[in-house]
Amino acid sequence: MDESSPVASPTIAAPPPQNSHVLWRQLLGLVCWAGLVPLAAGGPIGSVLCLTLGGVTFADAWKSGIYKRPGAKGFLNISPMGWGISMALLFIVAYPTYLLNRNKLRTIEGTRVFYWATVVLGAIVIVLLVLSIVGRAALRAK
Length: 142
What we know:
mainly alpha, 5 helices
């Protein structure tokens, strides 16, 4: 083999970037952040449910690889922490938006346990909201 002839070097694929965040620290931050805002409209049960829903949504987004994309803009381009906080504090907007766009946003096939927990907890919150509204309307009618 001639020394002057170019030799094709094998291409080495770069490993995917590692996520520098630790899940338990992120969940703790979510609880501290969302817990600072009073969710008095639903009472203590509603507050706990919304906070739990935020945590489960955060875990689902985390496990599904829904991360903030550099250079992209818009409400859908938020981190798992952003999804958790928006679900806990802005449920009416975030819940349907997340469920409708989750499959388009995810980058990896994560576990579906957190997804179904998000669906079920969100449905419970909706039922409680409807019951609360109906109960208040019935009290006003008396």
